[in-house]
Amino acid sequence: MEWLVQGVRAFQKEVFAKRQEMYEKVAHSQSPHLLFITCADSRIDPELLTGSEPGQMFVARNPGAIVPIYDGEVAAGMHASIEYALAVLAVRHIIVCGHSNCGAVRGMLYPEMVAGVPAVARWLRNGEDAIELLQAEEPFPSEEARIRRLTELNVLQQMRHLATHPSVARLLEANELTIRGWVYEIHTGKVERYEANAEQFLPWPD
Ligand SMILES: [Zn+2]
Q: Following CA atoms 48, 63, 136, 146 in sequence, which dihedral angle do they give, to the nearest 10 degrees?
């Protein structure tokens, strides 16, 4: 793990030293514009992908970029992240970002893959409604197309789950919140975003 030691050293000497003024400016409070919900996958770098600076995005990550349906009895991290971002930090934009080759999406489709990891299996049940939508669209021309479609449907379902959260529902009702869905393709760097009017994910405009 020597790279970790070197990495922190390089951050302090090079990155921080060059941007010290910016870091001091954001040191005492945050007012992010965006709640960015994405997968915990190690290949996703939300700040790099969006060109964002410290203080601009409140990021919530978990396997599968999942937003559990709201349950007031459960002390869930995602519940707290969403409520805090909206009710305390006054964030008014949410992006749910899925990605290509997602292990969680694969696990939703093939529960036997996660049979030995019960906590993961339980978590992925939050994608059951996406699986139902997928089954309604069968058959697909290839397995790749099927997984790709589940990736999209999972993003759409997690966006819908957001509306079950009281802090989200209040803002939606007042027309004060936007929720967007993205799919990031790791091997091409492409991002597609869901266009509600077209009812499909479309390439990022040039
Ligand atoms: Zn993933």
A: 60
Separation between Cα atoms, residue 97 and residue 36, nearest integer Å: 7
Render the burial of 37-51: b for 16+ CB within 10 Å, e for the rest: bbbebeebebeebbe
**106 CA distance to ligand 1 middle (Å):** 9
- CA 12 to ligand 1 center in whole angstroms: 30
**Phi-psi map region of 189: left, alpha, beta (phi>0 left; psi -120 to 50 alpha):** left
**What domain count does the chain have?**
2
State the pTM of this model: 0.96
Encoded tokens for 13: 């000497």
Q: Are residues 95 and 180 in the same domain?
A: yes
**Pair 56, 151 in one domain:** yes
Q: What is the pLDDT of residues 48-101, one digit of tens each?
A: 999 999 999 999 999 999 999 999 888 789 999 999 999 999 999 999 999 999
Q: What's the gap in Å between 102 CA and the centre of ligand 1?
A: 4
